[in-house]
């Protein structure tokens, strides 16, 4: 009997120890959860919508939940350039340019041609993948014509891109918070204020996303302004503009100048009508002055 009592007492002590350990483990887990939750909980209850959630206008990481590590952004380099090349034949040079564009996966964004008595000018705005920009410049420099001018520039916009990306991410987080708050808005005033904040954030997000798309486009595709220039030789052997043509042009220009002069005089007819009245009053005044003398 004594042995049975001792055995039961031992089992009871073992169970008590196990339950105590379990309670301590559960308490430790609970404290860990509470500690984690406290890092995201406000220190005091907000009194207004602005105090509930007041995002910084500059998108700074004041809200703990927004303090997340952003992905590393690769360097953003925008390359631009302009070239002027003198060629012997515009059409032939244009064909060479088109072949070079195909090899480098480039395309013409804008084309403008000007034909004057002095020269021919073909202006092209070319967009080319960033990785093919240098190869494109080299191809134009070597095989199209004589390079008269070349200007290449690189602009590092990594800092701007990173700054806009961080602000955009924060604004999206705040936008979701405001939408959640809108579902539980207690008064009409709170609802209207939250809706206005949501509208402002949506506009700011659209602007930021548009800026990022623009930067990505300029980074992914470089821009080159290419001018193909051909100077025209003005001589009687290679041009129709000889002495006879110039003499006829001079006679025509003289006649046109005479016609313009006569038309200018005719346009002054109101003043010619006034002149007789001026002469009449001047003579009358002069005769009256003589009579007084």
From TrEMBL:
Q: Which residues form a coiled coil?
A: 175-218
Keyword annotations from UniProtKB, A to Z: Coiled coil, Membrane, Transmembrane, Transmembrane helix
Q: Where are the transmembrane segments?
A: 258-282
> Positions of the region Disordered?
38-71
In terms of InterPro entries, this protein maps to: DUF4349 (IPR025645)
The residues covered by the DUF4349 domain are: 75-282
- What Pfam families does UniProt report for this protein, alphabetically? DUF4349
User: What is the protein's given name?
Assistant: DUF4349 domain-containing protein
This chain's source organism reads Chryseobacterium sediminis
């Amino acid at each position: 009997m004594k042995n049975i009592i001792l055995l039961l007492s031992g089992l009871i002590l073992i169970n008590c120890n196990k339950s105590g350990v379990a309670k301590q483990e559960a308490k430790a887990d609970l404290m860990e959860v509470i500690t984690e939750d406290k890092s995201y909980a406000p220190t005091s209850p907000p009194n207004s919508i602005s105090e509930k959630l007041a995002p910084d206008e500059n998108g700074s990481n004041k809200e703990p939940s927004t303090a997340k590590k952003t992905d590393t952004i690769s360097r953003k380099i925008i390359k631009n350039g302009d070239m002027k090349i003198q060629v012997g034949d515009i059409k032939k040079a244009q064909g060479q340019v088109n072949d070079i564009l195909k090899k480098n996966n480039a395309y013409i964004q804008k084309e403008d041609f000007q034909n004057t008595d002095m020269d021919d000018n073909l202006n092209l705005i070319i967009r080319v993948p960033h990785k093919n920009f240098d190869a494109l410049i080299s191809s134009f420099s070597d095989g199209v014509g004589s390079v008269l001018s070349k200007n290449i520039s690189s602009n590092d916009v990594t800092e701007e891109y990173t700054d806009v990306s961080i602000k955009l991410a924060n604004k999206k987080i705040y936008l979701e918070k405001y939408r959640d708050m809108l579902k539980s808005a207690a008064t009409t005033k709170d609802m209207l204020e939250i809706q206005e904040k949501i509208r402002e954030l949506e506009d700011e997000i659209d602007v930021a996303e548009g800026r990022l798309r623009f930067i990505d486009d300029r980074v992914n595709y470089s821009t080159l302004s290419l001018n193909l220039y051909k100077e025209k030789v003005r001589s009687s052997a290679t041009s129709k503009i000889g002495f006879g043509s110039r003499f006829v042009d001079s006679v025509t220009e003289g006649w046109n100048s005479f016609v313009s002069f006569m038309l200018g005089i005719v346009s002054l007819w109101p003043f010619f009508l006034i002149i007789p009245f001026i002469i009449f009053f001047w003579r009358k005044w002069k005769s009256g002055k003589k009579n007084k003398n």
